């Protein structure tokens, strides 16, 4: 294997974290902000890029180009590497940023490549390449929810994604297809044909409340789907804050109590 071979254990239900067990001189890389805790003897280092062999073999211009691509996805120029520099076994943990599930992926068992949404990556064994995937289809780029760019994980080691709510893993046979809300798509394997399909019917488009487009995926391959995209959760929180914020402003009015009674808040 080119990537470091790491062991792991996932803890928790709604708010999970993954504990990575490192042997001496093994390293795990992670996005900034996902670190939770680590044992003594683990050294932390900020690295330019993902620290993979491909990244290290690039010249300065190649590294700057890779860094620019990471900026396009909204990620930092740098990643954090956690290396076990002592003896025995040490552990480092990374936490999910919001309620959902952590998805462990052994890339060697998935043909060495996974395409995922831009904010799904949590951490990976050193040697896994974290890059970007450009969409070659205009419809997918404009209406796919992720724009023209998604994240691409390549290599033969372990990688960990995070997604919201409950995670469903769908195995698609040759020619079998699946329609998904664009925000619910988490990741898919390299042979999946991914495109955008417009909802049929003017009434459905205008009044259906499900948007104008589906993600259309066709096998063979594997697809991971989330039940609660963070964007949907954020929209509900914003809407609720506006609703209850306006109610709070009217609490001193004569109709404030009657309004709460009619809304069901007093029952």
Number of domains: 1
CATH homologous superfamily classification? Mitochondrial biogenesis AIM24
Shape: globular
Name the beta content range. Answer: 35-45%
Q: What structural class should be given to the helix and strand makeup?
A: alpha+beta
What is the strand and helix layout of this fold?
Elements lengths: L6 E5 L5 E6 L4 E4 L4 E4 L3 E7 L4 H4 L3 H13 L5 E7 L5 E6 L4 E7 L6 E4 L4 E5 L3 E6 L3 H6 L5 E6 L3 E7 L2 E6 L4 E5 L3 E5 L3 E6 L3 H6 L5 E6 L2 E6 L3 H20 L6 H8 L4
Antiparallel strand pairs: 1-2, 2-7, 3-6, 3-10, 4-7, 5-6, 8-13, 9-12, 9-16, 10-13, 11-12, 14-19, 15-18, 16-19, 17-18
Structural write-up:
The chain has 267 residues and is an alpha+beta fold. The chain contains six helices and 19 strands. It has helices at residues 53-56, 60-72, 138-143, 202-207, 230-249, 256-263, and strands at 7-11, 17-22, 27-30, 35-38, 42-48, 78-84, 90-95, 100-106, 113-116, 121-125, 129-134, 149-154, 158-164, 167-172, 177-181, 185-189, 193-198, 213-218, 221-226. It has a six-stranded antiparallel sheet with strand order 5-6-3-10-13-8, with no helix packed on it. Strands 11-12-9-16-19-14 form a six-stranded antiparallel sheet. The protein has a four-stranded antiparallel sheet with strand order 1-2-7-4, with no helix packed on it. It is globular and about 55 Å long.
């Amino acid at each position: 294997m080119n990537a470091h071979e790491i062991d792991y254990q996932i803890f928790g239900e709604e708010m999970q974290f993954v504990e990575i067990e490192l042997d001496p001189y093994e390293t795990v890389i992670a996005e900034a902000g996902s670190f939770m805790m680590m044992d003594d003897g683990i050294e932390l280092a900020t690295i330019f890029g993902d620290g993979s062999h491909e990244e290290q073999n690039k010249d300065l211009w190649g590294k700057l180009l890779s860094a620019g691509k990471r900026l396009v996805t909204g990620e930092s120029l740098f990643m954090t590497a956690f290396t076990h520099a002592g003896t025995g076994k040490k552990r480092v943990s990374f936490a999910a940023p919001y309620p959902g599930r952590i998805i462990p992926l052994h890339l060697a068992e998935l043909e060495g490549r996974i395409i995922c949404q831009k904010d799904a990556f949590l951490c990976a064994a050193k040697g896994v390449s974290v890059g970007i995937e450009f969409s070659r289809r205009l419809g997918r780029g404009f209406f796919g929810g992720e724009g023209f760019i998604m994240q691409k994980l390549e290599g033969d080691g372990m990688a960990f994604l995070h997604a919201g709510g409950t995670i469903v893993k769908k195995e698609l046979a040759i020619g079998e297809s699946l329609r998904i809300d664009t925000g619910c798509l988490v990741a898919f394997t390299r042979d999946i044909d991914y495109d955008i399909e417009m909802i049929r019917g003017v009434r459905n488009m205008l009044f259906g409340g499900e948007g104008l487009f589906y993600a259309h995926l066709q096998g063979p391959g594997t697809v991971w789907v989330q039940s609660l995209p963070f964007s949907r959760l954020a929209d509900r929180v914003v809407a609720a804050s506006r609703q209850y914020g306006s109610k709070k402003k009217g609490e001193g009015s004569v109709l404030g109590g009657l309004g709460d009674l009619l809304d069901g808040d007093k029952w």
